[in-house]
DNA sequence: GTGTAAATGAAATTCAATATCAATTATACC
DNA sequence: GGTATAATTGATATTGAATTTCATTTACAC
């Protein structure tokens, strides 16, 4: 099967990385969220189940999960690395409100075309992209005309 | 006239910020480069002329220059904030090689259209965007087939 | 089971970003 | 031009996330 857990196990085996109770729990908790979590936020969630887990363990596990292709880092420009897992998510981009900090996930298939065009022109092999639009969301617009 | 120096002076006046020898020099040195500089890199350049200038002064000046609309922050995902001035530059996006770290500036006017479409759909007022494509540049491709 | 190499968790370190504060300097007003 | 005062400067300290270190524990190949 192609469940995230199988993908993860296979990735670990293929790279000589051992399975561990902690890392499995971290992945499980991570997949159970639908948020963009920083390492510390995920650490705090995992600690509910494993009060003795160390921050470094969570920090390292997130890196492994990203390398396994199950998550990716997103950056909203506030100096904190956040991570979103890809289970049940298509790729998407973000509208980021510079007033309240909220972000909206958006899908824009046409951007793939732009990426291909640029890549071809520069003989560049693209692996991923980030497209972020900064501005004022409709709520913030309302309260400061 | 509309020279960067005039824009800067006007911005300062309009916002009750004083003119200073140091800040003027920082702007001058910054505009004289064509690179994406971190605050420390710019600091080291400015120090050639002003050996006694403090890092904090450069750091603060860069923020003011950005607020004046003369530069913007770019982020290549390495944890260091870099700045590029806009004098003689149109807006552009970046192809970033994940192997050698080099980046290519690209212009892609169609992306403005995408931004407008998304903004309209979500009633979002966009002020700027970042579009980054990560991948392997043609040089790195050559040396690792 | 046993040996060994990887993983863990606590703590220390690093480093950019940012804040603090006394001394200095630019500007508005006289 | 002189003066008051509020912003700027530069040295230094602080913050906070990211990352490293290392002794102990654990997974797993044999």
Summary keywords:
145 residues; alpha+beta; Dna Ligase, domain 1; 2 domains; three-stranded antiparallel β-sheet; 6 helices; DNA-binding
Report on this model:
The structure is a homodimer of 145-residue chains. Chain A contains 6 helices and 6 strands. With 145 residues, the first copy, chain A, is of the alpha+beta class. Chain A has 2 domains: 82 residues, Orthogonal Bundle (Arc Repressor Mutant, subunit A); 51 residues, Dna Ligase, domain 1, CATH 3.30.1490. In chain A, a hairpin with a 5-residue loop joins strand 4 and strand 5. In chain A, helix 2 crosses helix 4. The longest helix of chain A is centred in the middle third of the chain and has 13 residues. Chain A is globular. The N and C termini of chain A lie far apart (53 Å). Chain A binds a DNA duplex (30 and 30 nucleotides) through helix 2 and helix 4.
């Amino acid at each position: 099967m192609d469940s995230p857990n199988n993908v993860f196990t296979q990735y670990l085996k293929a790279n000589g990385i051992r399975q561990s109770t902690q890392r499995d729990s971290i992945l499980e908790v991570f997949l159970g969220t639908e948020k963009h979590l920083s390492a510390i936020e995920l650490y705090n969630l995992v600690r509910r189940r494993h009060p003795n887990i160390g921050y470094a363990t969570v920090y390292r596990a997130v890196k492994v999960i990203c390398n396994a292709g199950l998550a990716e880092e997103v950056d909203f420009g506030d100096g904190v690395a956040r991570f979103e897992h890809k289970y049940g998510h298509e790729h998407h981009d973000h509208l980021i409100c510079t007033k309240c900090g909220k972000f909206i996930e958006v899908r824009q298939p046409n951007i793939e075309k732009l990426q291909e065009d640029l890549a071809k022109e520069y003989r560049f092999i693209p692996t991923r992209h980030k497209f972020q639009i900064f501005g004022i969301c409709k709520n913030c617009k309302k309260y400061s005309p």
